[in-house]
Amino acid sequence: MKRICICGGGSLGHAIAGYLSAKKDVEVNILTQRPQLWKHELHIFTPEGITLYGRLNSISDQPEEALREADIILLCLPGYAIKSELIKINPYVNRHTYVGSVFSSTGFFFEAMELLDENIPLWGFQRVPFIARTRVYGESAHLLGYKSSYNIAVERSDDKEKFKTIIAELFDAPVHLLNNYYEASFTNSNPLLHPARLYTQFMDWDEKIYYDRQSLFYEEWTDEASELLIALDKELFALLDKLPVAPDFLKPILPYYESTDAESLTRKIRSINSFKGIATPMIHSDKGWQPDLSSRYFQEDFMYGLRYIYQEAHRQGVTVPTIDEVYHWGRRLAGSVNI
Fold first, then answer.
1. 3-state secondary structure of 307
2. Structural element, H or E, at residue 86
3. How far apart are the C-alpha atoms of 111 and 124, rounded to whole Å?
4. Helices 307-315 and 190-202, interaxial angle, to 10°?
């Protein structure tokens, strides 16, 4: 029987812990800052209308307890929490434990390679395996969607194929092994998509400026945002040309959205049903609306998404003036608030 430790208590942490403990012959431990709010039985409501009843082996805020004899560790955490969690668990991880992340584009591999012993195997999903939403914290969650297959990167392991098979069995879908961590870490989704829109909305904003309403993030997408997104995407691919990645591991923005130029990209983004109704992250006061600098769109996608693209481009000597401009703008705003 394998032992898996889930680090973090968000929606994905709930859904994955409940799913694995209900359906697989594994022991699941939870490492969380709020163990007192968790129950040992987790109810997971699936898209098929079935309720899964998971049973947690251990719930703790102490890494020495939660990680004891763990075969696999999975960080289900936002970008800003990854470094501190790796520092916390580092003394209790052994070289036989695979340490991974549920989502790799917020810097997991870069931080783990710097902080963890070089003999510890690392792994990470390219995209999150589930779409999930917490129902009652520590008790239940909605598992809203699965993926038909998964892409993962595995580093510092002598048996990547065996580990790939384990993940496929755990998550009930085929798994494709990426060539390296770059292919899991760099994406043109949220780390480019959200900054492009935010920059074109608020590039001239300061704390004295208020807006009369909260805009819709995607349904009111503009050609200006599309043009910026295309420019960011071109610079990302200039970086990828310098890295040992497969040429087709990532689709450029225009073909991905079945578009040919900025205008058609705008029409496409505005029309996507799953994007409809999503508001721009803003906060309201008696003076009006201002951007919410504490939202994950700022804190995650600038500080722990675009940041790693920016840093790697400069390490590789790739000129990225658009990424530079957008990243420094977002970092200035996002860094002005405490999270």
1. helix
2. helix 79-89
3. 12
4. 110
| Whole-angstrom distance, CA of residue 278 vs CA of residue 119 | 43
CA end-to-end span of the chain: 38
Q: Is 2 exposed, middle or buried (0-12, 13-18, 19+ CB in 10 A)?
A: middle
In whole angstroms, give the CA distance from residue 203 to residue 189.
Answer: 20
Q: Is the pTM of this model over 0.85?
A: yes
Q: What is the pLDDT of residues 47-57, one digit of tens each?
A: 999 999 999 99
Beginning with the edge strand found earlier in the chain, give each strand of the sheet holding 122-125 in spatial order: 58-60, 26-31, 2-7, 72-75, 98-101, 122-125, 150-155, 175-177
pLDDT tier at 274 (50, 70, 90 boundaries)?
confident
Q: Summarize pLDDT for 277-325 with one digit per residue, the tens.
A: 999 999 999 999 999 999 999 999 999 999 999 999 999 999 999 999 9
**Following CA atoms 10, 12, 27, 137 in sequence, which dihedral angle do they give, to the nearest 10 degrees?**
40
Tokens of 91: 């003394």
Helix (H) or strand (E) segment spanning residue 73: strand 72-75
- The answer to whether 144 touches 132, Cβ cutoff 8 Å, is yes
